[in-house]
Write a structure and sequence with these properties.
The protein has about 140 residues and is an alpha+beta fold. The chain has a domain of about 80 residues: Arc Repressor Mutant, subunit A, CATH 1.10.10.10. It is built from 4 helices and 4 strands. The strands form 2 sheets. A two-stranded antiparallel ribbon has the order 1-2. The protein has a two-stranded antiparallel sheet with strand order 3-4. It comes from Tautonia sociabilis.
């Protein structure tokens, strides 16, 4: 059975998208009632974010394991395999990595002497950033 719909004004948006249709709840959310214990508290929602971009996270995975499978990188970073492919292509297009086919797998060669792209950190090489982020001991780091 479908829930009834109510129209809620959405605020300052373009005239073509002025109204949003939302399903009605079983009770008015402004009045306490059954199910309130399960609801998250009202207020601003927390946006998920991280200090490192997806590109930096994928690059760190390649730094740690140059022959990693795309699905393994995807699992570590928390993105889809297709997203990993797109990031790897970006990194290869910009000269940060080179993909080498070894049998049925790819091995990624990192060009750690490349400079970071953003003007605030353009004086740093990729290897500097990755060595700071890598928790392993310096003797275990790739060349």
């Amino acid at each position: 059975m479908r829930r009834p719909l109510r129209v809620v004004p959405s605020g300052a948006v373009s005239p073509a998208r002025r109204r949003v249709i939302l399903p009605l709840d079983d009770h008015d959310s402004s009045v306490g009632g059954p199910g309130d214990a399960e609801r998250p508290p009202a207020g601003p929602s927390k946006r998920a974010w991280t200090f490192l971009s997806t590109h930096a996270q994928v690059l760190l995975c390649v730094w740690r394991q140059p022959d990693a499978l795309i699905r393994d990188i995807a699992e570590q970073v928390g993105i889809s395999g297709r997203a990993v492919q797109l990031v790897l292509r970006d990194l290869e297009d910009e000269g940060y990595i080179t993909s080498v086919r070894v049998g049925r797998r790819n091995r990624y060669q990192l060009h750690s002497d490349r400079r970071l792209r953003h003007p605030l950190v353009a004086q740093l090489e990729v290897s500097t950033l990755l060595s700071l982020l890598d928790a392993r001991s310096p003797g275990d780091l790739p060349p």
